[in-house]
Amino acid sequence: MRVSIIGGSGYGGGELLRLLLDHPGVEVHQVTSERNAGKPVTRIHPNLRKRTSLNFCTIKELEKVDLLFVSLPHTQFMQRFDELSGLAEKIVDLSADFRLKDPAAYLKWYGVEHPRPDKLSEFVYGNVELHREEIKKARYITGAGCNATATILPLWPLFKKGIVDTTMPVVAEAKCGSSEGGNTVSEATHHPERSGCVRSYKPTGHRHIAEMEQELGYPVHFSATSIEMVRGILVTAHLFVKPGTTEKEIWTTFRQFYGQEPFIRIVKEKQGIYRLPEPKILVGSNYCDIGFELEGNRLVVISAIDNLMKGASGQAVHAMNVMCGFEETAGLNFMGLHPI
Length: 340
Hints:
Elements: E1 2-6, H1 11-21, E2 27-32, E3 56-57, E4 65-70, H2 76-79, H3 81-85, E5 88-93, H4 103-110, E6 123-125, H5 128-136, E7 140-142, H6 146-161, E8 171-176, H7 185-190, E9 199-202, H8 209-216, E10 221-226, E11 233-240, H9 247-258, E12 264-266, E13 288-295, E14 298-305, H10 313-324
């Protein structure tokens, strides 16, 4: 299957290219970058040396393909949907442009009036674990946000099972790597201070809250803080379960919903190292690790992902695999490193 990537010079586009070059059912046809057109993709993604001879091209030079990945900054794809949608029968978008079902939410969270509200219902939200059957039939997929994914996946089974005490608030806090900030690889090269620095990221009003509440159907009080780490997210969520809920019920719930999922692991060990989720051992992998601790009716749920993989490009390839009938794990078999 021939695919192309629009927006290939950023972190998300680079990870997409890395994954697709190893995918057994895919041929990467073109990769765009307006600023770097004509230059080898390895100029921006040096880890791909000797793996590809592709050069960046412009969007105007794109030819029709079977599937198009779009990795543009937020609000750009929605403005160019008519122009770009004619390039492929199927599209996987990594931006937020079609994630939210309510058009009014774009004015609230992104400060723009959505130009194509009629298309919002045609995009399926890209968490495969929640929307597998819809994705199988989809033509358009919208990738889920990284913080949203790391928060939704550990909480969704608990809400679906009905064991959350919904009279009490849900509070979630994410510790994030600097690559989440949306800087392109070239920006990070010229501004190394933007990578690995410690800074407050978003204490309140994070845009991904809109996705969390859309998918969970419940308010989430969410904060995100960038720490001295380049890749990865660790979410700690605090909530209350209904009186009488036991640890065994929580185990059973996670196993019921995620026992057969290829990229979800329940991590709660009594012995050994990394007894709860740890993002650094997930770098480069498409796993979401989930753990928990129950104290009375108070439940602390912990999840970890690589924000560029399960939170972006890896999740997009997983969705493509489901949509196009490939093996779900195709191109996504890297299991992370230890020690690291």
